[in-house]
Specification:
By secondary structure, this protein is mostly helical. The chain has helices at 3-12, 17-28, 37-48, 51-68, 76-82, 89-98, 103-115, 119-125, 134-152. Helix 4 (51-68) packs antiparallel against helix 6 (89-98).
Amino acid sequence: MSSDLAENMLSRRGVSVSSIADIVFRLQQRYHPKLTMDQCEESVRAVLGKREVQYTLFTGIALDELAEKKLLPQPLQSIMEQDEPLYGVDETMALGVTSIYGMIGLTSFGYLDKEKIGIIDTLNEQKDGIHVFLDDLVAGIAAAASSRIAHRNPDAAHYAADSEGKA
């Protein structure tokens, strides 16, 4: 399976790779001054290339679309229509995506979930559709892609133990 299907599903819901990459850039640019948007887009595509991310994305988008068509059983339909703050399943699914590249992804997701940067805010505020899962999944993808860049930063400090085993 390729990331093309995931990109197409995102696009159909109004989300582009570049809109996610913009969030990644905003998260990492201060720590990685030579970072480019191309690197951010490549990192987003790398995250979208992971099958478990694709499956999570497909599931979340399907639930959002079923809610828009009023095809979910109650009380789930009402919970989705209200974007119930205590629901939390959407964040739980997104956390699975963030964990791919470690703890940095988790902290970045928490920040994005509160600050609603870029396309995340757009999705969260759209009243003509239901994006209960998608806004959090986009935050999870951006957080994972950002964490991936942080782990690959060539300017990161490197530490070596001394010869007696002391750090």
